Amino acid sequence: MPNPHDFHTPQPSYSRDELLRSSEGGYFGPGNAQLPAPPMLMMDRITEISLDGGEFGKGHIVGELDITKGHWFFDCHYRSDAVMPPTLGLDAMWQMVGYWLGWSGSPGKGRAIGVGEVACTGEITPNAQRVRYEVAMRMVRRGKLVLGIADGRVVADGVCVFVAKDMRVGLTKAVD
Q1: How far, in Å, CA of 26 to CA of 10, rounded?
Q2: Which residue in 136, 133, 159 sits closest to 148, CA to CA?
Q3: pTM score, two decimals?
Q4: Residue 77 bears catalytic tag
Q5: Which conformational region is residue 51 in: left (phi greater than 0), alpha (psi within -120 to 50 degrees), or beta?
Q6: Distance CA 69, CA 126 (A)
Q7: H or E element: which one contains 132?
Q8: Of 10, 75, 78, 114, which sits 20 to 30 A from 2 (CA to CA)?
Q9: What angle do CA 138, 141, 147 make, to 5 degrees?
Q10: Which residues of the chain are under the pLDDT cut of 50?
Q11: pLDDT digits (tens, 9 = 90+) for 34-57
Q12: Which of 87, 176, 74 is nearest to 126 (CA)?
């Protein structure tokens, strides 16, 4: 598999346009990590990404999503009770762990493989302005098995509404 750093020089932040390019594939090289395309791309930007930051000093990533009343999930989750499904917050953080693994130089396509603990402490409604996803890498294994384990939280307008511990993302070789 190609080395992601042969195709991409890591940056400390990413714009929406750069994230959209990642969703097209090949951003980190053929067969390597990529983000999903809209509407499943759950962030508008990555404001911070590092190899040694975060609560555990093993890397972190922070992404943001600007909330609009027209987001697709508000119209279909509960028609008479518009809230963002918490599972989309979890998916956003899984997306970020997979992106971090590619960004940090590991080859392969990201796949969510589990989560240890999830707690919903609030909700995101169309009245929210911005969602911030904060992910701290707890452990990273590289080698035949590439695995990232992270803790994260979802913050809406400064209030924590969702916490996940032991989110696991593995990188797998592409199957043709």
Answers
A1: 14
A2: 136
A3: 0.95
A4: yes
A5: alpha
A6: 5
A7: strand 130-141
A8: 114
A9: 80
A10: none
A11: 999 999 999 999 999 999 999 999
A12: 74
* Structure tokens given for 169: 């993302």
Give me the catalytic one of 8, 60, 71, 77: 77
Q: Which two tokens stand for residue 40?
A: 């499943």
CA-to-CA separations, 89 to 72, 73, 84, 148, in angstroms, rounded: 14, 12, 8, 18
Element (H, E) at 156: strand 146-156
Asked if 46 and 93 touch (Cβ cutoff 8 Å), the reply is no
Indicate the residue type of 104. Answer: S
Structure tokens at 26: 């090949």
Which amino acid, residue 159? V
Residue with the two structure tokens 């590289």? 142
Closest among 105, 136, 130 to 6, alpha carbons compared: 105
pLDDT given at position 176: 52
State the Cα–Cα distance between residues 59 and 48, nearest whole angstrom: 10
